[in-house]
């Protein structure tokens, strides 16, 4: 715990490059060999990570994943069985994601039976590069979507984003059919299938998605999309969304009017 507190640092740009073993040991008043062993153990657990070039350590992906999941504890708890069901049904990696500004944060990932899996929990990527992005942006106004799509991207990634018209058509499909099918821009996958999850107010609060690694026909992708949409609707109900056609409580109506 002391090592993690040291790595947490000052919370500013001074910590961007991490800290060396000698500095950490000196700061803690411990033997360098003792601190080095502890850091290796923490690295294996994903609690810290080591820069291969500078050999400096910083906080790892698992800590950030735990922090993100703590902030959204109820959402993760309620969503877990639904995400697990999708991963088992298709034997593909399944995810629970939320929108944070223009970034998509993965709160939960459930792996398939494949041996190799990328670690996404606690990781944020640009929404326009994420498989769940179309579901998370489904109710954005057209002008806002176009502005986001025209934002600059890191070199080499611009060509990976679909056209504006294609995006808008996909968003319309989410609103009408309840799911989106998209190329997965940041994964070695054939496609991604996602669906929006709504909270008790009917607002999109998250998205669940499945990364399709096997070659799959369009017909089958739409079948899978319908299944994902069904899980999303059930999850939304579990989060308090009233059934379609049910009256909205007056308190919620007042909240929407504000």
UniProtKB/TrEMBL annotation:
Alphabetized UniProt keyword annotations: DNA-binding, Transcription, Transcription regulation
Gene Ontology MF term list: DNA binding; DNA-binding transcription factor activity
Superkingdom in the source lineage: Bacteria
InterPro entries hit by this protein: GAF-like_dom_sf, HTH_MetabolicPath_Reg, Tscrpt_reg_IclR_C, Tscrpt_reg_IclR_N, WH-like_DNA-bd_sf, WH_DNA-bd_sf
Residue stretches making up the IclR-ED domain: 62-241
Span of domain HTH iclR-type: 1-61
Biological processes per GO annotation: negative regulation of DNA-templated transcription
PROSITE patterns: HTH_ICLR (PS51077), ICLR_ED (PS51078)
Residues forming coiled coils: none
Protein name stated in the entry: DNA-binding IclR family transcriptional regulator
Lineage: Bacteria, Bacillati, Actinomycetota, Actinomycetes, Streptosporangiales
């Amino acid at each position: 715990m002391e090592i993690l507190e040291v790595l947490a640092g000052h919370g500013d740009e001074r910590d961007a490059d991490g800290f060396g073993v000698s500095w950490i040991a000196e700061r803690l008043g411990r033997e360098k060999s003792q601190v080095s062993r502890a850091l290796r153990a923490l690295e294996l657990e994903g609690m810290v990570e080591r820069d291969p070039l500078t050999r400096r350590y910083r906080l790892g992906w698992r800590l950030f994943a735990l922090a993100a999941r703590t902030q959204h504890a109820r959402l993760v708890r309620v969503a877990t069985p639904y995400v697990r069901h999708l991963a088992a049904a298709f034997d593909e990696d399944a995810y629970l994601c939320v929108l944070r500004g223009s970034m998509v944060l993965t709160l939960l990932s459930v792996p398939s039976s494949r041996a190799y899996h990328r670690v996404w929990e606690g990781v944020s990527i640009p929404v326009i590069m994420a498989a769940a992005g179309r579901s998370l942006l489904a109710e954005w106004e057209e002008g806002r979507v176009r502005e986001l799509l025209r934002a600059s991207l890191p070199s080499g990634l611009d060509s990976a984003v679909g056209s504006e018209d294609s995006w808008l058509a996909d968003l319309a499909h989410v609103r009408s059919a309840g799911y989106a099918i998209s190329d997965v821009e940041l994964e070695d996958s054939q496609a991604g299938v996602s669906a929006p999850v709504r909270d008790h107010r009917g607002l999109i609060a998250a998205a669940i998605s499945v990364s399709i690694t096997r070659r799959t026909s369009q017909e089958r992708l739409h079948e899978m999309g319908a299944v994902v949409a069904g899980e999303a609707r059930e999850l939304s109900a579990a989060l308090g969304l009233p059934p379609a056609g049910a009256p909205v409580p007056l308190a919620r109506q007042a909240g929407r009017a504000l």
